[in-house]
Design a protein that fits this description.
Strand order of the largest sheet: 3-6-7-8-9-10-11-12-13-14-15-18
Structural class: mainly beta
Number of domains: 1
Order of helices and strands: EEEEEEEHEEEEEEEEHEEE
Number of helices: 2
Largest sheet: 12 strands, antiparallel, barrel
CATH superfamily: monomeric porin ompg
Distance between the termini: 10 Å
CATH topology: Porin
CATH class: Mainly Beta
């Protein structure tokens, strides 16, 4: 929610007088324009439906559809907070294969950070992200994960480095795992944007689980807050390690979405 700067313009005052029977008029000087209004905080909501929820190239819903909610708050200083909620299925499938059960069906993320411009068109972003999986039950170690990150954006290109400060997504002895990525959001027209991503997920002390991910797609702004899009993704993740109940979470496939922001 932003308010456009306003300017106050004072009209000149017209006075009339007589001098030696000759009439004349004088116009007062215009008042200076008021200073622009200070920027305000923003609060944005987005709901979206996806053919599948995948994260860093790996399916989180075992190729099933997902509904998601994003809430983002931004302060004029550059500080921001946000949360993200989505249904998931990977914990349930992994538990069944492991011989136990779980009621975890939701991923709930909480994040915060600070963005600032270091030079024209170059913005840095540092922050913290918590992945929470309520009711994850008997999983050990827990899938709940904490990451710190730093990123940079220049024009349509951004890069980001994320570092896990505890065991990562339920993988034992994986503290210190990281993910490095490069992203593209290039406007083709006023409404159509080309998107791309390449990243590498490294699992410390579990190198067999590490992999590279590639994505390319597009998003289209329908107006009035609505957008649609999709992308094609692929990874080189070892299918023997990422296949559960006959579903290869890392295999190549297309993903599509429709979203409404307000």
């Amino acid at each position: 929610m932003r308010i456009l700067p306003k300017a106050l313009i004072a009209a000149g005052a017209l006075t009339a007088g007589l001098s030696s029977s000759i009439a004349f008029a004088q116009t007062a000087p215009a008042a200076p324009a008021a200073a622009p209004a200070a920027p305000e905080s923003t609060l944005a909501f987005k709901v979206s439906a996806w053919t599948e929820y995948e994260y860093r190239g790996i399916s989180q819903t075992s190729e099933k559809p997902a509904g998601q909610l994003n809430i983002d708050y931004g302060h004029p200083s550059g500080f921001y907070l946000g949360t993200f909620v989505s249904n998931i299925k990977w914990l349930k499938d992994a538990a069944e294969v492991g011989g136990f059960s779980t009621s975890a069906k939701i991923e709930w993320d909480i994040f915060g950070g600070y963005k600032f411009e270091v030079m024209k068109d170059l913005t840095l972003d540092v922050g913290y992200l918590r992945y929470e999986y309520p009711s994850s039950g008997a999983f050990s170690p827990k899938p709940n994960t904490d990451e710190i990150y730093i990123g940079a954006t220049y024009g349509p290109v951004s890069v980001k480095y994320s570092y896990s400060i505890n065991d990562t997504f339920g993988v034992a002895n994986s503290e210190g795992s990281d993910f490095i990525e490069a992203n593209l959001a290039y406007p083709i027209t006023e409404k159509l944007t080309l998107t791309g991503n390449v990243g590498y997920q490294k699992y410390k002390n579990n190198n067999a689980l590490s992999y590279t991910v590639y994505k390319i797609g597009a998003a289209y702004d329908l107006g009035s807050g609505f957008s649609v899009g999709g992308y094609y993704k692929n990874t080189d993740a070892d299918s023997n390690l990422y296949t559960y109940k006959g579903k290869d979470w890392g295999k190549a496939r297309g993903v599509a979405f429709v979203a409404y922001a307000f």
